[in-house]
Write a structure and sequence with these properties.
- With 91 residues, this protein is mainly α.
- The protein contains 4 helices and 2 strands; from the N terminus they run ααββαα.
- The radius of gyration is 20 Å and the shape is elongated.
Length: 91
Amino acid sequence: MTVEGVTPPPRRLEEAREVLGWINARIGDLERELQALKTLRVLIASSIPGETQSMQDIESLPWRPFKDGGGEWIFEDEAGQELIELLSKQG
């Protein structure tokens, strides 16, 4: 079976490692780009008066886990003003 844009499986172990390395690097690049775009989307949406952040927008922020595993945190400048105000009101 041939898929457009996909090369056939490598025949040598060295080729397989090279292709796997390229795939892993590409996935990493795409994940970083996706995270940057999601953050940019949230930042732009939060700058528009009356625009609300959906749960998907909030979940797409670059949250970092606490070392003890008891939740997550985010830098204030990455959260957006609306989320900061909401969390401040809730204490």
